[in-house]
Amino acid sequence: MLPGTTRYEKRRPNPSNLIPKWNVSACTQCNQCVAVCPHAVIRPFIVTRQEAEEAPYPGQFTTVKALGAELAGKRYTLQISPLDCTGCNACVEACPESPKALEMHDVEDVLTSGGEQNWSYAVNLPERGNLVDKYTLKGSQFQVPLMEFSGACSGCGETPYFKMLTQLFGERMIIANATGW
What we know:
Blueprint: E1 18-22, H1 32-36, E2 42-47, H2 49-53, E3 64-65, E4 75-80, H3 90-94, E5 102-106, H4 107-112, H5 115-123, H6 137-140, H7 159-169
Antiparallel strand pairs: 1-5, 2-4, 3-4
């Protein structure tokens, strides 16, 4: 088991005071926004209708019908950790939709509307990454990343690669730091 201590190191105050908020009506569930997030703070979850109804803020824990035959009868939600997001805007820029499925909002507005409680609830739900093909972009993002909340600079272009490698290969891999001068 990995220690996962970075989940306890919150970036307060948020470096930009802006974080993404999900625009459900524009989302196609492609998970491209999730794949580019350098800090693994935006994640998709597969939930049951009952789990959606039992959320701490049911009216604000938004879910939609999950797309794909393998997810029949399931719901999809996209959650953002408001206390870990650096506001880099990479997820918004990665969204192929117009209008965008993510929009930047004030972090305090998200916190007061149950953002942190919704995140905590979602990450404690049963993992269902086994329902999808993890060797697709969309499916890989349903796998729990073993590298999350890195101390990398806001918008780092390297950490999404390491995050995705852990989603594809899990604990079977070793990452060695080879930086120098």
